[in-house]
């Protein structure tokens, strides 16, 4: 399993900028796979804590059902600027259901401390850790003449592509 701490160790600059994009709004879009294989896009509030990326969801939500059936997903930062002034971040992953009571308790405590919201206020909920399979950051070159695409995957160096 590739944790967020693993990403931070292997690609610290990319991890810092990616995390900043997700933290900027606290919101993200998660792409999951429906039962028929078609994509579903849903809003989610990812939590970066305890060395992991976490997704907590409402019980019975379609996105949670999708991930319980097939954990493959993509997480996209909430892009609000067509000029990509602050960049655009994506995390590809496999969501793994967290069932360990101690891990869930640590998540609940960490989430509450970070956000001021008690995730258990409405009872039990599906909780997933992300096994990161890739991180992509898209930005505009400082010169303004190209789009810069940085990509990392486990076991590889960060690759950089400039598109003009």
Number of strands: 9
Low confidence ranges: none
Structural class: alpha+beta
Share in β-strands: 35-45%
How large, in whole angstroms, is the Cα Rg? 16 Å
The biggest sheet amounts to:
9 strands, antiparallel
Order of helices and strands: HHEEEEHEEHEEE
**Average pLDDT across residues?**
96
Helix content: 25-40%
| Shape descriptor | globular
Number of helices: 4
Distance between the termini: 36 Å
Describe what this molecule looks like in 3D.
The protein has 164 residues and is α+β, with helices and mostly antiparallel strands. Helix content is 27%, strand content 37%. The chain has helices at residues 4-10, 12-25, 62-69, 101-115, and strands at residues 28-33, 39-44, 47-49, 52-56, 72-77, 88-97, 127-140, 147-152, 159-163. Strands 1, 2, 3, 4, 5, 6, 7, 8 and 9 form a 9-stranded antiparallel beta sheet that branches. Strand 1 and strand 2 (39-44) form a beta hairpin. Helix 1 (4-10) packs across helix 2 (12-25). The protein is globular. The model has no long low-confidence stretch (mean pLDDT 96).
């Amino acid at each position: 399993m590739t944790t967020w701490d693993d990403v931070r160790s292997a690609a610290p600059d990319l991890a810092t900028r990616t995390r900043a994009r997700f933290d900027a709004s606290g919101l993200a879009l998660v792409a999951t796979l429906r039962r028929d294989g078609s994509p579903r896009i849903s809003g989610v509030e990812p939590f970066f804590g305890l060395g992991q990326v976490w997704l907590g969801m409402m019980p019975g939500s379609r996105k949670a059902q999708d991930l319980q059936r097939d954990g493959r997903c993509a997480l996209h930062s909430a892009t609000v600027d067509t000029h990509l002034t602050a960049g655009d971040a994506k995390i590809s992953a496999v969501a793994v259901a967290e069932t360990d009571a101690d891990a869930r308790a640590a998540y609940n405590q960490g989430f509450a401390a970070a956000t001021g919201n008690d995730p258990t206020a409405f009872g039990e909920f599906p909780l997933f850790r992300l096994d990161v399979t890739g991180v992509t950051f898209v930005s505009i070159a400082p010169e303004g003449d190209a789009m810069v695409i940085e990509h990392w995957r486990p076991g590889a160096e960060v690759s950089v592509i400039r598109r003009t």
